[in-house]
Each structure stands twice: as C-alpha cells, then as structure tokens.
Amino acid sequence: MDQDTANKLFDVGAFMLFMDAPPNLEFGIDYNAWTVGPLFKGVKLIPPGLHFIYFSTTSNEGTQGIRTGFFHFFESQEVLVREWNPQIEDLRDESDLDPVQVERIRSNIRSFDRNMGPYPLDPPIYFQRWKKLTNYITPGLVRRVLPNNGKVSHIPEKLSDISNQDTNTINDKRLGKAIEKEEGMDFTVFDLRKSFPNGASGDIVTRWSLDKSWLAGQLLENIYHNGDKLEILCPKCSLTDCLAIDFKVLLGELQLSFVCLLMAQNFSGFNQWKKLVQLLCSCSELMTEKPDLFLQFMDVLQFQLDECPEDFYRDILSEGNFTSVMLKTLQRNIPGSEERLVSRYTKLRYFIMNKFDWKVTENDQEDEDEDDAPTIVNLEEE
User: Fold this and answer.
1) Mean per-residue pLDDT for 325-335?
2) Which of helix, strand or coil describes residue 37?
3) Domains in the chain, CATH or no CATH each
4) β-strand pairing of 14-19 with 79-85
5) Are 333 and 322 in contact (CB under 8 A)?
6) Whose CA is closest to 109, among 36, 11, 14?
7) Higher pLDDT, residue 233 or 363
8) Does the pLDDT value for residue 109 go beyond 50?
9) Is 9 helix (H, G, I), strand (E, B) or coil?
10) What tens digit of pLDDT does each residue of 282-294 get?
11) Which of 127, 138, 218, 295 is buried most deeply by CB count within 10 Å?
12) Which residue, among 164, 160, 140, 124, has the nearest Cα to 2 in the 3D structure?
C-alpha cells in the first residue's frame, strides 16, 4: 500500500481485532486469506463498508476444516472486537465479552498496531472487484437474511462428513434437500411452481406459469416494496438509506446468495441464487415494465460468472446444464422491442461463450427439471 493511501485510510479505516487467534488458522477478509502466526491480532485500515471475514482451523494432520464467516458493515474508524473460543473453535461476539474490557481495548487500539495487518489494497483491483460483487447488498438485507450477527452458518453436523468430498456430491438430491434451509439463514421464500394468484382461473394459471412476472411482482411489492425508498437513519450502522427497499435489494439478495457460495462455501446460498436467476430469466411482461431491473440483473450475473474459476463453474454453476437453460430462457423472454435488453443479452451470451467455451446447441428445447416445469392447465371442457 502506498503512503498516500495509508494516510487516507488512517483517518477513516476501521479495525477488526482478533484476540487469542490460534496459530495456523486460515483467516481471510474478502478476497484475501492468510495462515496466521502467533502474534496476529487482526486487520487494520479496513475501508468502510461491507466486508466478509472468515476462518477455518487446520487439524494436526493438516486437514482444513469447514470455513466459517460473517458479514459486517464497518463504519469509519470502527473497532470490532472478536475473541477466539477454543472450546467450539469459533469467535465470541462482543455480547459474550466483558464490556469494560472491550472498551479498554478500543481506547488502546493503537497498542496493537504492529500486530495487525493492513487491509490489502495493493493491487487495488481486488478491492474494486469485491465492491462490484457486493454493491447492492445493504445492512438491512444482511440483518434480515443473516440475523445471527451476519454469520454464515455451518453445514449441518450430520452432513459435515460430506464437506471434504468432491463438489459433485451437490448433485445428490438428498444433500440439496437437507441443506435447503440452514439454521440462521432466512433467504426470501418463494415457490417457482406456484407463480400465480390463489383461486386463479385456468388461463391465468397457464399464463403466469409460463411467465413468472406475477410472482416477481409480488415479491417486489411485498418483500422489496416495488421501489419505495425509506429514508431511515439506522441507529446501528449510522447509514442513511440503509433500509432503502427496491429492486436493487432483490439484486442485493442475488449477490448475497452468490457470495455465500463463492466465499463461504455455503450451498443454501447456491439454492437461493439458482431460484432467483431462474425467476428473473422467466419474466417476459416485467421486462417491458422494468427494463432497468433486467439490465442491472445481467450486469450482476455477468460479473458473478466472471468471478468463477473454471472448475467452480463446471462442477457447480453448470450442474444440470443450468446456465445454458437459463440463458435460453432469458433470450426467449426478452421482448424484441426492448433494444437495450436485446443488446445487453447479446453481450452476456458472447461473454459466456468465450469464457467457458460454451457451445450453442441447435435444439433450444432443453430438458427442464420436473419440479420447475411450468404448470399448463387444460381449458377444454370434458
């Protein structure tokens, strides 16, 4: 980090103090991870905003444990204090610590300076990529989805023996069902197979089963409040508009679910990401009403795919030919009159073709998962 950047961050940068960290622990923040030594006390000069902090233990045999982490919005010059709990191999939150001791630590944070590593900003590209990966995620969204202080939960204990197996184990439907809702994670619940109003007539059921615009509209109105911004000063994070609720927060949940998979190795995030991608690719009418939502959706999706290592894409994101099916579904639903959407889709399509050597098949009738196939109602009288 150059001296000018360091001086600027000295006035605004935050601190994450990690007390009693065990040696050989893998510790990371955002895109950066290290194996820590006995003198490690945390990270300093953290740029204000959202960050993901994670760690995993290493056994005496050198086996890496399950990664655990939490999201936190750092304020300027905030001092976040965490302490290692060797009994459960996890961090104690400040609520579990002596408040007098915590305050004493905060007032003497400079005494830990030489044992704290600076947030890596050289090269700056990694921080820029992190900001772009998470730019729609709000503090309110993190609190709603991850109410346990932003913590991303472990895979349930009964499945922990699966964690060291090949990533192809996610093809096992038992695993997908068992981790559909992990403890402490509250992603927005919706059913892609029930994408029409209660009591709808047969033609309405057919219409909104093929076009998911009604379901997406309901989520925007009831969960994301369809663009209404709440000018609120959050007492916890002191950020104006942190509870602004609109379609950008829907995109924020798309980002949060993806980061939970990419960084936290959490497959509940993967399930939610797939559902949100499938929903947004299937909204023909809404694309005409809210083209900006879908322009920004394609921006988010392309950047997410660009962040994927090739094996990650091959083993996880393209499982069941998911990417190919969704891309063709998106193409089919974009109205030809929406030139901006057509142009943006073309760029997305060529990006995927070039990055992942994706071959365009002549037959667009890909097999769909039985559970996600649209409901078609026979309107003929018997």
Assistant:
1) 93
2) coil
3) 3-130 (2.60.34.20), 151-372 (1.25.40.550)
4) parallel
5) no
6) 14
7) 363
8) yes
9) helix
10) 999 999 999 999 9
11) 138
12) 124
